From TrEMBL:
Protein name: Glycoside hydrolase family 3 N-terminal domain-containing protein
Signal peptide coordinates: none
Key word Hydrolase present: yes
Family: Belongs to the glycosyl hydrolase 3 family.
Fibronectin type III-like domain span: 709-778
Keywords for this protein: Glycosidase, Hydrolase
A Pfam family recorded for this sequence: Glyco_hydro_3_C
MF-aspect GO terms: hydrolase activity
UniProt keyword 4Fe-4S present: no
């Protein structure tokens, strides 16, 4: 009996835990972070419906997807409907604020509110959708995250003028950290379009006219954005724009057709993109334009043969806003939306920026048999892969407490000032007027850009709290203090001629020891401007006061003259006989023929960002020795266009009215000190597959100021099987030298650096003579040496 009771107890001990055991459903593979990403993607795809897959490719406009109230930030009804009906997987510009989005400092989001908004959006995705797939949030990040309260750096044309990729990589790291801190995952940028058409409205967003400089800047941005670990919480995916040849539209018309031969594409327009892909870029945006009759958003050679097969690109391709529907409405190569969707996705375009290029149109194309589910799966897998790589399935949220420790912190503000300082170009300094003395008692500060926040910042900039931006007036006031009287007179607007105070400006100039006049252009959007669906400004005749905006997306020019009464103002001020320093703040090269001939000193600041006023004051008064160099040539007349430095042989001849040379050449820029170049030598070592060409020389600071010099190496192929440029930049380095200091420099070239695309469309480096040129700009070559290659190299 006792034995039976013992056995019963033992059985109960064994059975009772089994009776209380609750069946736990095994975790799906796609939610298991221990599994390889490829397995997780495959598992998730197998669980998705066709509708859910199509939804993952839709990138809707994000600023409509949250609701801000006194209680905080919540998801909007529109967002819930889009998720439930369209199964969306991406949003764009959720945190963007500008006149187009109608988000102001009051209705938009502070950095902390931005983090709250993205957390709310992600929570809804995780908790209220069948599979809990997090959103991929893309943001505009060309010169800072385009959101309220972030750090605003100089625009790209100014960044390129630093000729300092290391500095630009540091800047990109700061932008990435600020964007990721508030919930962004993808940064649109860099723009790698070669800018060889200054009438085009978006030149300010580019790195200029040269493929080598563009490539180095592009690599710096990609590396800074993406780092080595996307799941770090500090890095974002870099989206390269615009693929490709977008920056040379016929007549300067934004988005217009482009006439470029295949050899020129390969040798000039594609290399910056190719180098950025080598650097690991994980996203590419197609361009609005067509090339040789094929729209870039439906070009399988571009998106498959080249990008995937030749370059081994592993990321995803996204359309520019509305460019898929543009196959119907702009290019007229598709009869309807479904046909446009099928053309785009079959060509290799993965994601739709708009929400209407794919969506129902893509579902219809699949139903009609124009798109296979295998093609759909390929596109979706590329997007999902990056969501996993970013760590969003494990941690879709951001820490709101960390926002104030990351966004617009003192280190980033100081970095913005440093980039602005290094971007400033000294164009003229007659009689060494600059740097100015801080003992000046009376200074006249004149011009429409002397104390204008938004004219200083460029396009793709959010509304700004006034205290966050340092204008030129404020920079000079901080620099000089109470000991100097600064008389500020606006004088005129950029474009509008209804309010003019030239006589008042002249009076201020006559009473001053020196005049600083700040002219140029503006890309400042305002709430009176109308916008196209793509976000580009709609240039129309306006009633009342005219906007300053003459640059920025959609504002193409027919001339490059200073608009409004600016030149009249400058001439009147110069007529006083007082020393005049012209500062230009602008987004494109402008006609500076008269200032170059008559004004004492000129500095070019492009759009210098939030610390521009401080940086300009630093340069004007000698606390920073300028060393910026032009990354784009400045023409004397639009009749010279195109006027880029590395045009192909034969050499250009002069016109009846003017010579063929630009006013300022690519690479040009002066300093407060002088430099001497000596002792060039080269050593060539050839191997069966490559060569090592070392070029060494010395650079010495022969002036009395410490300063930077941008040393530039150019090459000319003396005899080639196809026509080549008269000279081509191959390398450069920005160096700092104390007064009297000398430094030995060395550049090393390989077969890759001297290659061309021959008549058979094969990459080769041909034997023969090459001239190696070292100088301070493309038109100031100071040292040369000839190199003879003894064999051909097939690459």
């Amino acid at each position: 009996m006792i034995k039976r009771q013992i056995n019963l107890v033992l059985i109960l001990i064994i059975i009772c835990p089994l009776l209380s055991f609750k069946y736990v459903k095994p975790q799906p593979i796609y939610k298991d972070p221990r599994k390889p990403i490829s397995e997780r993607v495959k598992d998730l795809l197998n669980k998705m419906t066709v509708e859910e897959k199509v939804g993952q490719l839709a990138t809707l406009l994000g600023w409509e997807m949250y609701t801000k109230s006194g209680k905080g930030v919540t998801v909007s009804t529109k967002f819930k409907e889009a998720v439930q009906r369209e199964h969306i997987g991406m949003l764009w510009a959720t945190l963007r604020a500008d006149p187009w989005t109608k988000k102001t400092l009051e209705t938009g989001l502070s950095p902390q509110e931005a983090a709250m908004a993205t957390n709310a959006l992600q929570k809804y995705m995780v908790d209220s959708t069948r599979l809990g797939i997090p959103l991929l949030l893309s943001e505009e990040c060309p010169h800072g995250h385009m959101a309220i309260g972030t750090t605003v750096f100089p625009t790209a044309i100014g960044q390129a003028s630093t000729w300092n990729p290391t500095l630009i990589q540091e800047m990109a790291q700061a932008i990435a950290a600020e964007t990721r801190a508030v919930g962004g995952h993808v940064g649109y940028g860099p723009i790698l379009d070669l800018a060889r058409e200054p009438r085009w409205s978006r030149l300010e967003e580019t790195y200029g006219e040269d493929p080598v400089l563009n490539a180095k800047m592009g690599r710096a941005m990609v590396t800074g954005f993406q780092g080595t670990d996307l799941s770090s919480g500090k890095n974002i995916i870099s989206t390269l724009k615009h693929f490709t040849a977008y920056g040379v539209p016929e007549g300067g018309h934004n988005g217009g057709s482009v006439t470029v031969g295949q050899r020129e594409l390969y040798q000039s327009y594609l290399p910056p993109f190719g180098e950025a892909v080598k650097a690991g870029a994980l996203s590419v945006m197609t361009a609005y334009n067509s090339i040789d009759g094929i729209p870039c958003s439906a070009n399988p050679w571009l998106l498959k043969d080249l990008l995937r097969n030749q370059w081994n690109f592993k990321g995803f391709v996204v359309s520019d806003l509305g460019s898929i529907s543009g196959l119907v409405g702009s290019h007229h190569v598709a009869a309807n939306a479904a046909e446009a969707a099928s053309q785009a996705i079959n060509a290799g375009l993965d994601a739709d920026l708009s929400g209407y290029g794919y969506g129902r149109a893509l579902l219809a194309a699949i139903k009609e048999g124009k798109v296979t589910e295998a093609t759909l799966d390929t596109a979706v897998s590329r997007v999902l892969y990056q969501k996993f790589a970013l760590g969003l399935f494990e941690n879709p949220y951001v820490d709101i407490k960390q926002v104030s420790r990351t966004v617009r912190i003192p280190n980033h503000i100081e970095l913005a000032r440093k980039v602005a300082q290094q971007s400033i170009i000294l164009l003229k300094n007659n009689g060494n007027l600059l740097p100015l003395s801080k003992s000046i008692k009376k200074l006249a500060l004149i011009g429409p850009n002397a104390d204008n926040i938004y004219n200083q910042l460029g396009d793709y900039t959010a509304p700004q709290a006034e205290e966050n931006i340092v204008t030129v007036l404020e920079g000079l006031q901080a620099k000089l203090g109470a000991g100097t009287r600064i008389d500020y007179v606006k004088g005129c607007d950029i474009r509008d001629t209804s309010e003019i105070a030239i006589s008042t400006a002249v009076q201020a100039a006559e009473a001053a020891e020196v005049v600083v006049i700040v002219l140029g252009g503006s890309s400042a959007r305002d709430f009176k401007t109308s916008y196209q669906e793509t976000g580009a400004a709609q240039v129309t005749a306006t009633q009342g006061k005219i906007s300053d905006m003459e640059s920025g997306e959609g504002f193409d020019r027919a001339t490059l003259d200073l608009l409004g009464k600016q030149l009249e103002l400058l001439k009147a001020v110069k007529a006083t006989g007082k020393p005049v320093v012209l500062v230009t703040i602008k987004g494109r090269p402008l006609n500076l023929n008269w200032p170059q001939e008559h004004v004492d000193a000129i500095i070019d600041a492009w759009y210098p960002g939030q610390e521009g006023g401080n940086a300009i004051a630093d340069v004007l008064f000698g606390d920073y020795n300028p060393a910026g160099r032009l990354s784009v040539s400045v023409p004397k007349s639009v009749g010279q266009l195109p006027v880029y430095y590395n045009y192909k042989n034969p050499t250009k001849h002069d016109y009846v009215e003017v010579d063929a040379k630009p006013l300022y050449s690519f690479g040009y820029g002066l300093s407060y000190t002088t430099f001497a170049y000596t002792d060039i030598r080269h050593q060539l070592t050839e191997t069966p597959d490559d060569f090592n060409l070392s070029i060494s020389f010395k650079v010495k600071n022969t002036g009395k100021y410490a300063g930077d010099e941008v040393v530039q190496l150019y090459v000319r192929d003396e005899i080639s099987s196809v026509v080549t440029p008269i000279l081509q930049l191959k390398n450069f380095q920005r160096i700092h030298l104390k007064a009297g200091e000398e430094k030995k420099m060395e550049f090393v070239l390989h077969a890759e650096d001297l290659k061309l695309l021959n008549a058979q469309m094969k990459w080769v480096t041909e034997k023969g003579r090459f001239k190696i040129m070292i100088g301070s700009s493309s038109d100031n070559i100071l040292l040369t040496t000839d190199v003879e290659l003894n064999k051909d190299y097939n690459l």
